[in-house]
Amino acid sequence: MWFYLLFFVCQLVNVVLSTIKSVITIKGTKLMAYIFSAVNYGFNTYIIKVIADVELYVAVIVSVICNLLGVYLGMLITDKMRKEQLWKITVTVPTEKMTEFKKELCENKIDFIAYETSWNDYKVVDVFSKHKSTSKTIKHIFSNYDVKYTISANVGEL
Questions:
Q1: pLDDT in the model for residue 109
Q2: Share of the chain above pLDDT 90, in %
C-alpha cells in the first residue's frame, strides 16, 4: 500500500513541477526555464521507472487525479511567486458619467489620467493599478458605470 501512496505523491509532485515549468518557460527567464526543465524531466524519468511497477488502471486513475490537483497547485504556486506589476487600463466612459467616475477614482486613491477627446459621447481615461487589491477596487468601480476597457501590463524593463 505504501508503494501506491509513494506513486501518488511522486505523480502529484511531477504534475506540479510540469505546470511550473510550463509557466516559467513562457513567462520566466531563460535560466529559470533551463533549470525547471532539467528538474522536471529528471523527476519525470523517476516517475516512468516507478510506473513500470504499477498496474495500468492504477497508473491511469492516479494520473488523472494528480493532474486535476497538480495543475491547480502549480498555478497557485506560480500566482503566489509572481511579482506585482503595473497594469494600465484604458477606459471609455460615457461623457455624462465622467465627473462621477473621476470622483470615485479619487475617493479610492486610484491613479488615473483623463484625456480630452473630440468624441462627444465618450471620454477616455487611463487607470493604473499596481496591486491585486487595487484591481479589485477598480473592477468594482467599473461595474457602476457603462464602461468598456482594455488592459495592458508592463512586460519588460528599460
A1: 95
A2: 36
At residue 131's C-alpha, the angle toward residues 125 and 135, to 5°, is 50
pTM above 0.70, yes or no: no
Whether 74 and 23 have beta carbons less than 8 Å apart is answered as yes
pLDDT tens profile 75-134: 888 877 777 678 899 999 999 999 999 999 999 999 999 998 888 899 999 999 988 889
Grid coordinates of 71? 495543475
**CA 47, 49, 54, 56: dihedral to nearest 10 degrees?**
80
CA distance 83 to 31: 18
Cell numbers 477596487: residue: 137
Looking up cell 462627444, which residue turns up?
120
CA angle 35, 38, 41 (to 5 degrees): 145
Ordered DSSP codes for 6-45: HHHHHHHHHHHHHHHHHHHHHHS-HHHHHHHHHHHHHHHH
